[in-house]
Design brief:
There is one protein chain. This protein starts with a helix and ends in a 6-residue tail after the last helix. It has a four-stranded parallel sheet, with helices on both faces. Strands 2-3-4 form a three-stranded antiparallel sheet. It has seven helices and seven strands, in the order αβαααβββαβαββα. The relative contact order is 0.15. Helix 1 runs parallel beside helix 7. It has about 220 residues and is α/β, with parallel strands linked by helices. The protein has one domain.
């Protein structure tokens, strides 16, 4: 076997081993005594697919329909600003050029990126909507898909105690901002699940989301 292929195989094995250990460590931390919140009831709303990855890594149940999908920032902010009313709206699937289902929820669009059919998306939406716990809401936002500074300010003003936003710059005036340094030269926050070059850590690992779920406090690692 050529040396380059062998080295790449060894590197992949090392990354997998590290990620498996990191996931196990994170799952144990999440469930240690002393958590302020009931972690099995946490209801995560996210405007990108990042939320689904985090919950899957932690072996947490999807208690929110806003998982494995994405929304434009302004649409997501509208939903968060009037969540009760929007959750009473029916999903209406529409024709779209994308290969995955797209639906309207009232006047906002939802892009079901990781669903194979409308039936699958609709069934998951209704099932997870029933699990939502208003007392355990966590809101995760990302500076992507055309997000503006005004959107960040609007997110900061939302009346939720537990909210965080992944950003490309340091915004000391945005209380829930989680700055990822590697994204600074980009126009939008990058893909948080990607690995740093030559390493085993993902960009999102800078955000201590386990501590966030346990205490509601935003910390960097």
């Amino acid at each position: 076997m050529p040396r380059k292929i062998l080295r790449n195989k060894e590197k992949r094995s090392a990354v997998k081993f590290f990620r498996d250990c990191f996931r196990m460590y994170s799952r144990i931390r999440l469930r240690l005594p002393g958590s302020v919140y009931e972690t099995d009831r946490i209801t995560l709303l996210c405007n990108t697919c990042l939320g689904g990855v985090i919950l899957s890594d932690l072996h947490m149940r999807f208690n929110s329909p806003f998982i494995n999908l994405w929304m434009y920032p302004k649409d997501f902010l509208k939903v968060c600003g009037d969540l009760t009313s929007y959750m009473e709206q029916p999903l209406v699937f529409i024709e779209d050029r994308r290969e995955y289902p797209v639906a309207l929820l009232g006047d906002v669009k939802i892009y079901f990126r990781h669903y194979h059919s409308r039936d699958e998306a609709a069934e998951a939406w209704e099932r997870r909507k029933k699990r939502m716990s208003p007392d355990h809401l966590f809101i995760l936002f990302s500076e992507r898909n055309g997000c503006t500074y005004e959107d960040l300010k609007a997110f900061d003003a939302l009346p939720y105690a537990r909210k965080a936003v992944i950003t490309t710059k340091e915004y000391p005036e945005i209380q829930p901002a989680v700055y990822i340094e590697e994204f600074e030269d980009e126009k939008a926050s990058g893909i948080g699940t990607r690995y740093r070059k030559g390493g085993c850590r993902r960009y999102i690992d800078d955000f201590d989301y386990v501590e966030w779920f346990r205490s509601g406090k935003i910390r960097r690692r």
